[in-house]
Amino acid sequence: MITPTKFLSLAFVLCASATALQSPLQDPVPAAQDVSQPALMLKLRSGQIRWGHILSHDPDGFRFSLLSHGGVADVPWAALDPSQQQLLREEFGYVDVATAELMVDVERLILVDGHEVVGVILSREGTDFVVQVEGNLQLVPKRRVQSISKGGQAPALDIYSREELYARYSTELVETDLQGQIDLARTCEQFLDFEHALEHFEAALALDENGEHPELEQVVVKAQIKAAQQAQIDYLRAVDVLRKKGQYEEALEDLEKFATVFPDSPLMLDVKAKENQVLLARDDEVTRFVRTRWNYWLARLTRQVAGKTDYAGAVGYAEEGLGEDIRAAVLADVQEQFNSEATEDQIVAYWVSRKKLRFANATYGEGTWMLGEDKAHAGTEDDSVKREAMTDKDKQRADLEEKIQRFLKNQRNARRAQAQAAQEDEFQTFWAAFALSKRANWIKAYYVEFAGDYELRDHPYLKACSTCGGRGAHEIIYAGGGGSKQNAAVQIVACHVCRGVAVARRVYYR
Prior knowledge:
Helices cover about 50% and strands about 20% of the residues. By secondary structure, it is an alpha+beta fold.
């Protein structure tokens, strides 16, 4: 790996070679450069020294001309000794304006419609709460408030205006109090009021006649740079407000305009950081939104198709069409609310990266039999051993179970031999009589289990058929003439509800 220091050393070597060979890499010193100024001693992180002149600079680094042979190299700031890096960046206006923002305690009002208001409650009298939010007073009717809880802390500028904050903290200032001036200046910086911060740092410097705070001179220089950038800082703060309100496209548009509004700004790195922050916040919210809307459209579309398609159409739609329609519907929602240029591939990526919460469930209900014996029982352990263990105590019941199993096996063989057309008629007849809500649940269950868009729990839940008790068949006894038990006949018939599969299948997904 080439470190910044190694890169810089290599660049200087190349510059020297370029000079010797009259290569195009050699850039002549621009006429605008004042070479009459003393040469700058450049201190590198490696401890090496280079003499020369800085030709130009930007937030990433600067272009340096070596005094020894006139070669030119682009030097990243990270290649310099940290102390000189800080001094040069401050001299050129590249000062980190980030500071620990002033935080205040807030309360969270949860409304009956699920929305929330975060702020400071100023009054609880009458029928409304008076809440301070974003520098404004908001009336919240008490009848709309479901609960109130301590909301932790929020940036002071999210609640109060800058003027309100300055008025609050400057009220008790004694102008001749040196430490009070310094403390107020630092507090001003915490709510991004750099112009007032400069005013109070300068006042502190004037009061420091005995030199108790020698660092104040350098602090004032930094404060002057920050104050000069106040309008830019306020611009980026306004972008932050848009981000917190979820207005991501507007925030990104304003960031794109920043370079036009403030050409040659030293805060371009901050702009890039803000852009990344907005994009990450948008991705997080869109991911949550996609998860919610995916489940919404799943419920809505399954109900829609359940009312207008036959059994074969329902299966085909669950296997292919439903997933496509959900993705298209969610994409339209995201494009309308968050990003007009979003693509279906991005929607799928958001869905895959979603936070998977608790399992939901969907059931085939009485239509489980249409899956067939294998699919109806797939994913569960063979319970024949359990059944035998339970029936060892009752030999007669064991014999009955054996008869039922033989009967069901014969039924399955007969069903396989049944003509395809007759089987489809049987399915369609049942489907037509199936309740609309149960059809919708059946389609949903089939989609989540077989389309591959959801994560399934390891084992489904199989509920024993309530009509046959989970046997799949009934034993019917026909009494002989005159009610004689000796002439009675026993016949086993398939359960008319579960059609021999003995269970109703429920799958869990998220």
